[in-house]
Amino acid sequence: MKKDIKGIIFDYGGTIDTNSRHWAEVLWEKYREVEVPVSKEEFREAYVFGERSLAKYPFVRTDHDFHEVLRIKCKLQMEYLAEKRFLPMVEADLLRYATQVADACYNYVLGVLERTRPVVEALSKKYRLVLVSNFYGNIQTILEDFGLDGFFEEVVESSVVGVRKPDPAIYQLGVDRMGYEAGHILVVGDSFSKDVVPAKKVGCKVAWLQGEGWGGEVIDESLPDVILTDVAQLLDIL
Question: What is the C-alpha separation between 191 and 211, in angstroms, rounded?
Answer without folding.
Answer: 9
